[in-house]
């Protein structure tokens, strides 16, 4: 599975990448914000987009909306990361078509559960 991880903090990207590797997901590309991620999404094929909500340049919410508005990307599963369990943000993400969200900090088991949940829903 090819995963694009979009997170503005390099340390957090490294932690999440290590969690994904521990779960057997080693084909992971990285971008520091939505502006960097969009061209990657157009030039490569990814099976899952994992993105933080709050980032400079282009937020995860803006990235999610751009992905859902693009007919080539609209079906790409999107797992959104947030450090803020703000109900309004979660509702906005749900309305924008997020596949699932996870609140930081999280464990490898929580991450694995969300990824499995997304793909079980897609395959049913």
Describe what you observe in this structure:
With about 120 residues, the chain is an alpha/beta fold. About 50% of the residues lie in helices and about 20% in strands. It has 5 helices and 5 strands; from the N terminus they run E-H-E-H-E-H-E-H-E-H. Strands 2-1-3-4-5 form a 5-stranded parallel β-sheet, sandwiched between helices. The longest helix has 16 residues. The chain is globular. This is Response regulator. Keywords: Phosphoprotein.
Question: How would the blueprint of this fold be written?
Answer:
Blueprint: E1 3-6, H1 10-22, E2 28-31, H2 34-43, E3 48-52, H3 60-69, E4 78-82, H4 87-96, E5 100-103, H5 108-123
Parallel strand pairs: 1-2, 1-3, 3-4, 4-5
Helix pairs in contact: 2-3
């Amino acid at each position: 599975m090819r995963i694009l991880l979009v997170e503005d903090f390099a340390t957090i990207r490294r932690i999440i990448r290590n969690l994904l590797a521990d779960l057997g997901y080693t084909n992971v590309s990285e971008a520091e914000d939505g502006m960097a991620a969009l061209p990657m999404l157009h030039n490569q094929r990814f099976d899952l987009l994992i993105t933080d909500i709050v980032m400079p340049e282009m937020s995860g919410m803006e990235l999610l909306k751009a992905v859902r508005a693009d007919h080539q990307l609209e079906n790409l599963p999107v797992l959104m990361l947030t450090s803020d369990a703000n109900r309004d943000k979660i509702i906005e993400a749900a309305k924008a078509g997020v596949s699932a969200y996870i609140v930081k900090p999280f464990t490898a088991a929580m991450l694995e559960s969300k990824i499995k949940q997304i793909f079980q829903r897609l395959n049913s």
